[in-house]
Design goal:
Keywords: Nucleotide-binding. One of its GO terms (molecular function) is GTP binding. It is a single chain. This protein is of the alpha/beta class. The protein has a six-stranded mixed sheet, sandwiched between helices. Strand 4, helix 3 and strand 5 form a beta-alpha-beta unit. The longest helix has 17 residues. The structure holds guanosine-5'-triphosphate and magnesium ion.
C-alpha cells in the first residue's frame, strides 16, 4: 500500500547562500533574482514519491543571519534530515557550512541525515570552492589564458600577475572529500537552473525510507 511518511527537514547555512531559493525551486518550481532575506524561519511542505512510498517533507527554511543563530536548535532538533547550504562562489560560506556540521554533530540527533549542497553551481566562472582536487583546473586556466596571448614572452609575466590576483589563488576547498569524511552526502546545486535540486531531496527521501 502507499505509505505516507512525514519527515522534518531543516535548511541551514550562511546568509545569501540560497536556502530559500532552493526551497522555492523544490516546492513551487520557481526562482527569483531578488529573493528577500529570511526573517526567523519559514515553513513549507512538499511530498515526493519514492517507489511505493510517499515522503511528506515538513521543511524549515531558517534565516542565515547571525542574529537568528540561537533559534536554530528549535528547527534542527528532531529533524529527520538537514541540508547544509554553502555558496560555491564564496569560500567563507563553506567555512560557515562546516561550523553547522560541527554544531549538528555535537547537538543534533545522531540519526539526522545530512546533505551538503554547494549552491549557485550556475556561476561556474566565480567558483571558489572546488568539488574535487583542482591542480588540473589551475593548470588549464593558466594554459588557456596564455595561449590567447600573441607573444608568449610578454604573456607569461602577465599570466603570473593575473593568477596571483584572481580566484585561482583563493585556497580551494574539497567539498566532496570533506563530506565523505563527515558522513554527509554532497551535491552541487543551482536553484536558478534547477540542476540537482529535486535530486538532492529525492536522495534524502531514498535514504529516509531505508531507515
Ligand atoms: P537568508 O534567508 O538571508 O539566510 O538567505 P538564503 O540562504 O535564503 O538565500 P536566498 O535564497 O535568499 O538567495 C540569496 C540570493 O542568491 C538571491 O538573490 C538569489 O536570487 C540568489 N541565488 C540563490 N540561489 C542561486 C543560484 O543557484 N544561482 C544564482 N545565480 N543565484 C542564486
Ligand atoms: Mg532565506
Amino acid at each position: 500500500g502507499n505509505k505516507i511518511r512525514n519527515a522534518k527537514l531543516v535548511l541551514l547555512g550562511d546568509v545569501g547562500t540560497g536556502k530559500s531559493s532552493l526551497v522555492l525551486r523544490f516546492v513551487k518550481g520557481q526562482f527569483v533574482e531578488f529573493q528577500e532575506s529570511t526573517i526567523g524561519a519559514a515553513f513549507f511542505s512538499q511530498t515526493l514519491a519514492v517507489n511505493d512510498e510517499t515522503v511528506k517533507f515538513e521543511i524549515w527554511d531558517t534565516a542565515g543571519q547571525e542574529r537568528y543563530h540561537s533559534l536554530a536548535p528549535m528547527y534542527y532538533r528532531g529533524a529527520a534530515a538537514a541540508v547544509i547550504v554553502y555558496d560555491m562562489t564564496n569560500v567563507a560560506t563553506f567555512a560557515r557550512a562546516k561550523k553547522w556540521v560541527q554544531e549538528l554533530q555535537a547537538q543534533g540527533s545522531a540519526n539526522t541525515i545530512m546533505a551538503l549542497a554547494g549552491n549557485k553551481a550556475d556561476l561556474l566562472e566565480s567558483r571558489q570552492v572546488s568539488a574535487e582536487a583542482s591542480l588540473f583546473h589551475h593548470h588549464c586556466y593558466f594554459t588557456s589564458y596564455c595561449v590567447k596571448m600573441e607573444i608568449w614572452i610578454y604573456a607569461l609575466p602577465f599570466c603570473f600577475i593575473r593568477c596571483i590576483t584572481s580566484n585561482a589563488f583563493v585556497i580551494l576547498q574539497e567539498a566532496q572529500s570533506y563530506a565523505q569524511e563527515n558522513g554527509l552526502f554532497f551535491m552541487e546545486t543551482s536553484a536558478k537552473t534547477a540542476v540537482n535540486v529535486n535530486d538532492i531531496f529525492y536522495e534524502i527521501a531514498k535514504r529516509l525510507i531505508r531507515v
